[in-house]
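user:
I keep going back and forth on a fold encoding question. Separate attempts, laid side by side, tell us more than any discussion would. Would you put together a sequence-and-structure record for a protein of your own picking? Write it directly below this note and I will take it from there.

assistant:
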Amino acid sequence: MKLLIKKKDTVKVLAGKDKGKKGEVLRVFPEDGRLLVAKVNVVIKHQKPTQTAAGGRQEKEMPIALAKVMLVCPKCEQAVRPKRDTLKTGERVRVCRKCSEVIL
C-alpha cells in the first residue's frame, strides 16, 4: 500500500477522541495502514519497575488509522487529500488539491 503521508508531515485528525487536533507524524506503518502522531491518541500504560527503570503510569502515543487523518498543506494550511503528479523531469510529487502547490 503506497501512502501519501510521510514522516514529519503535519496531519489533522478527522475522527475519534482527538478530532480537530493537528500533529506531526512520528512514524508510519504502511503494512497496517496506521501512523503515529505526536500528542494524539495518548493512552496511559502501567509499567512495572525494573532494575534500570522506575515503574508507574506512563503516557504514550498509540498508532491511529490512516483513514482518520488528512494531510495539512504547508502553503494554504488546509487539510487535503493530496494527489500524485509527475513533473517534466519525471519525478513524482504530491500536490495539494486546493492550492495546486507541490508538497515536499
About this structure: The CA atoms of residues 34 and 66 lie 5 Å apart. The radius of gyration is 17 Å.
